[in-house]
Amino acid sequence: MPYPFRSPRVVVRAGLPLVIAAAVIGGIGLSTMRAQDTPRPDDVAVFMRAKLDHAQHVFAGLALADFDRIARGANELALASQASSWQVLQTPEYARHSAEFRRSCESLRSAARAENLDGAALAWMEVTMKCIQCHRYVRDEREPESN
Ligand code: HEC
Questions:
Q1: Distance between CA atoms of residues 123 and 142, nearest Å
Q2: Closest Cα to atom 35 of ligand 1
Q3: 121 to 44, 74, 97: CA distances (angstroms)
Q4: Cα 41 from Cα 67, distance rounded (Å)
Protein backbone atom coordinates (compact mmCIF):
# COMPACT_ATOMS: atom_id res chain seq x y z
CA MET A 1 0.00 0.00 0.00
CA PRO A 2 1.32 3.48 -0.74
CA TYR A 3 2.10 5.97 1.99
CA PRO A 4 0.30 7.06 4.18
CA PHE A 5 -1.74 3.85 4.39
CA ARG A 6 1.27 1.57 4.81
CA SER A 7 1.79 2.37 8.46
CA PRO A 8 -0.98 3.39 10.84
CA ARG A 9 1.65 5.05 13.03
CA VAL A 10 2.58 7.40 10.22
CA VAL A 11 -1.06 8.23 9.75
CA VAL A 12 -1.41 8.91 13.45
CA ARG A 13 1.75 11.00 13.50
CA ALA A 14 0.66 13.04 10.49
CA GLY A 15 -2.95 13.16 11.59
CA LEU A 16 -2.58 14.38 15.15
CA PRO A 17 -0.91 17.69 14.32
CA LEU A 18 -3.55 18.25 11.66
CA VAL A 19 -6.32 17.66 14.17
CA ILE A 20 -4.63 20.01 16.61
CA ALA A 21 -4.12 22.62 13.90
CA ALA A 22 -7.78 22.33 12.86
CA ALA A 23 -8.89 22.67 16.47
CA VAL A 24 -6.68 25.73 17.00
CA ILE A 25 -7.80 27.39 13.78
CA GLY A 26 -11.40 26.52 14.53
CA GLY A 27 -11.00 27.91 18.04
CA ILE A 28 -9.53 31.14 16.73
CA GLY A 29 -12.38 31.41 14.24
CA LEU A 30 -14.97 30.91 16.96
CA SER A 31 -13.37 33.34 19.34
CA THR A 32 -13.12 36.08 16.71
CA MET A 33 -16.79 35.50 15.90
CA ARG A 34 -17.59 35.79 19.58
CA ALA A 35 -15.49 38.93 19.96
CA GLN A 36 -17.58 40.70 17.32
CA ASP A 37 -20.83 39.76 19.03
CA THR A 38 -22.19 41.41 22.13
CA PRO A 39 -21.41 39.17 25.15
CA ARG A 40 -23.54 35.99 25.28
CA PRO A 41 -26.16 36.02 28.05
CA ASP A 42 -24.69 32.85 29.66
CA ASP A 43 -21.23 34.35 29.85
CA VAL A 44 -22.63 37.58 31.24
CA ALA A 45 -24.60 35.77 33.97
CA VAL A 46 -21.51 33.80 35.07
CA PHE A 47 -19.42 36.93 34.94
CA MET A 48 -21.97 38.98 36.89
CA ARG A 49 -22.34 36.28 39.52
CA ALA A 50 -18.59 36.35 40.11
CA LYS A 51 -19.11 39.83 41.56
CA LEU A 52 -20.82 38.17 44.51
CA ASP A 53 -17.68 36.12 45.20
CA HIS A 54 -15.50 39.22 45.18
CA ALA A 55 -18.03 41.02 47.36
CA GLN A 56 -17.99 38.14 49.82
CA HIS A 57 -14.21 38.37 50.08
CA VAL A 58 -14.47 42.07 50.83
CA PHE A 59 -17.12 41.48 53.45
CA ALA A 60 -15.16 38.69 55.12
CA GLY A 61 -12.06 40.90 54.97
CA LEU A 62 -13.92 43.70 56.73
CA ALA A 63 -15.26 41.36 59.39
CA LEU A 64 -11.78 39.95 60.06
CA ALA A 65 -9.79 43.18 59.53
CA ASP A 66 -7.93 41.31 56.79
CA PHE A 67 -6.82 44.28 54.69
CA ASP A 68 -5.21 42.20 51.97
CA ARG A 69 -8.44 40.37 51.40
CA ILE A 70 -10.41 43.63 51.23
CA ALA A 71 -7.94 45.17 48.80
CA ARG A 72 -7.92 42.07 46.58
CA GLY A 73 -11.73 41.92 46.45
CA ALA A 74 -11.92 45.64 45.68
CA ASN A 75 -9.35 45.25 42.95
CA GLU A 76 -11.20 42.31 41.35
CA LEU A 77 -14.42 44.32 41.34
CA ALA A 78 -12.74 47.36 39.80
CA LEU A 79 -11.13 45.18 37.12
CA ALA A 80 -14.41 43.38 36.39
CA SER A 81 -16.07 46.73 35.71
CA GLN A 82 -13.64 47.26 32.84
CA ALA A 83 -14.20 43.88 31.15
CA SER A 84 -16.19 43.57 27.93
CA SER A 85 -18.80 41.32 29.59
CA TRP A 86 -19.59 44.19 31.95
CA GLN A 87 -20.71 46.45 29.07
CA VAL A 88 -24.26 45.13 28.89
CA LEU A 89 -25.94 48.42 28.01
CA GLN A 90 -24.31 50.90 25.66
CA THR A 91 -25.68 54.08 27.23
CA PRO A 92 -23.95 57.09 28.81
CA GLU A 93 -25.85 56.43 32.06
CA TYR A 94 -24.58 52.88 32.24
CA ALA A 95 -21.05 54.15 31.64
CA ARG A 96 -21.57 56.69 34.43
CA HIS A 97 -22.82 54.00 36.85
CA SER A 98 -19.79 51.89 35.93
CA ALA A 99 -17.37 54.77 36.46
CA GLU A 100 -18.88 55.63 39.85
CA PHE A 101 -18.77 51.99 40.88
CA ARG A 102 -15.11 51.78 39.90
CA ARG A 103 -14.30 54.96 41.84
CA SER A 104 -15.92 53.53 44.98
CA CYS A 105 -13.94 50.30 44.54
CA GLU A 106 -10.79 52.35 44.28
CA SER A 107 -11.62 54.26 47.51
CA LEU A 108 -12.21 50.90 49.15
CA ARG A 109 -8.87 49.60 47.96
CA SER A 110 -7.05 52.75 49.15
CA ALA A 111 -8.67 52.55 52.58
CA ALA A 112 -7.68 48.87 52.81
CA ARG A 113 -4.09 49.66 51.82
CA ALA A 114 -3.99 52.39 54.48
CA GLU A 115 -5.35 49.79 56.94
CA ASN A 116 -8.20 52.14 57.72
CA LEU A 117 -11.01 49.81 58.79
CA ASP A 118 -13.69 52.49 59.30
CA GLY A 119 -12.81 54.12 55.99
CA ALA A 120 -13.00 50.73 54.28
CA ALA A 121 -16.36 49.94 55.89
CA LEU A 122 -17.72 53.28 54.69
CA ALA A 123 -16.34 52.80 51.18
CA TRP A 124 -17.90 49.32 51.15
CA MET A 125 -21.32 50.78 51.88
CA GLU A 126 -20.76 53.11 48.95
CA VAL A 127 -19.83 50.18 46.71
CA THR A 128 -22.95 48.23 47.67
CA MET A 129 -25.10 51.32 47.00
CA LYS A 130 -23.62 51.43 43.50
CA CYS A 131 -24.49 47.75 42.95
CA ILE A 132 -28.08 48.51 43.87
CA GLN A 133 -28.32 51.77 41.90
CA CYS A 134 -26.95 50.27 38.71
CA HIS A 135 -29.25 47.27 38.96
CA ARG A 136 -32.23 49.56 39.47
CA TYR A 137 -31.18 51.57 36.42
CA VAL A 138 -30.85 48.38 34.33
CA ARG A 139 -34.30 47.16 35.46
CA ASP A 140 -35.84 50.55 34.64
CA GLU A 141 -34.28 50.52 31.18
CA ARG A 142 -35.59 47.04 30.43
CA GLU A 143 -39.06 47.23 31.97
CA PRO A 144 -39.90 50.86 32.62
CA GLU A 145 -43.40 50.16 34.00
CA SER A 146 -42.46 47.42 36.50
CA ASN A 147 -40.78 49.67 39.08
C1 HEC B 1 -22.70 49.54 36.29
C2 HEC B 1 -23.70 48.55 36.49
C3 HEC B 1 -23.57 47.45 37.50
C4 HEC B 1 -23.00 47.50 38.75
C5 HEC B 1 -22.34 48.68 39.43
C6 HEC B 1 -23.17 46.20 39.32
N7 HEC B 1 -23.83 45.37 38.45
FE8 HEC B 1 -24.43 43.47 38.83
N9 HEC B 1 -25.33 43.40 37.03
C10 HEC B 1 -25.32 44.41 36.09
C11 HEC B 1 -26.08 43.98 34.94
C12 HEC B 1 -26.28 44.79 33.68
C13 HEC B 1 -26.57 42.70 35.23
C14 HEC B 1 -27.52 41.85 34.40
C15 HEC B 1 -26.88 41.10 33.29
C16 HEC B 1 -27.99 40.49 32.46
O17 HEC B 1 -28.72 39.66 32.99
O18 HEC B 1 -28.11 40.92 31.34
C19 HEC B 1 -26.08 42.37 36.57
C20 HEC B 1 -26.35 41.17 37.19
C21 HEC B 1 -25.89 40.83 38.43
C22 HEC B 1 -26.15 39.57 39.09
C23 HEC B 1 -27.05 38.46 38.56
C24 HEC B 1 -26.27 37.46 37.74
C25 HEC B 1 -27.20 36.34 37.27
O26 HEC B 1 -27.78 36.49 36.20
O27 HEC B 1 -27.34 35.38 38.02
C28 HEC B 1 -25.51 39.61 40.29
C29 HEC B 1 -25.52 38.52 41.35
C30 HEC B 1 -24.83 40.88 40.38
N31 HEC B 1 -25.07 41.59 39.24
C32 HEC B 1 -24.10 41.28 41.46
C33 HEC B 1 -23.55 42.55 41.59
C34 HEC B 1 -22.85 43.00 42.77
C35 HEC B 1 -22.64 42.19 44.04
C36 HEC B 1 -22.45 44.28 42.51
C37 HEC B 1 -21.66 45.19 43.40
C38 HEC B 1 -20.51 44.68 44.07
C39 HEC B 1 -22.91 44.63 41.17
N40 HEC B 1 -23.56 43.54 40.65
C41 HEC B 1 -22.71 45.85 40.57
C42 HEC B 1 -24.72 45.63 36.20
C43 HEC B 1 -24.09 46.10 37.33
A1: 29
A2: 52
A3: 28, 12, 21
A4: 34
Q: Is the predicted pLDDT of residue 34 greater than 50, yes or no?
A: no
Nearest in space to 122 (alpha carbons), one of 99, 98, 134, 104 = 104
Convert the pLDDT of each residue in 60-74 to its tens digit: 999 999 999 999 999
Alpha carbon nearest to ligand 1 atom 20, residue: 48
Q: Is the pLDDT of residue 40 over 50?
A: yes
Give the number of the atom of ligand 1 that is nearest the alpha carbon of residue 52: 35
For residues 121 and 107, is the Cβ–Cβ distance under 8 A?
no
Distances (CA, A) of 146 to 94, 140, 141, 143: 19, 8, 10, 6
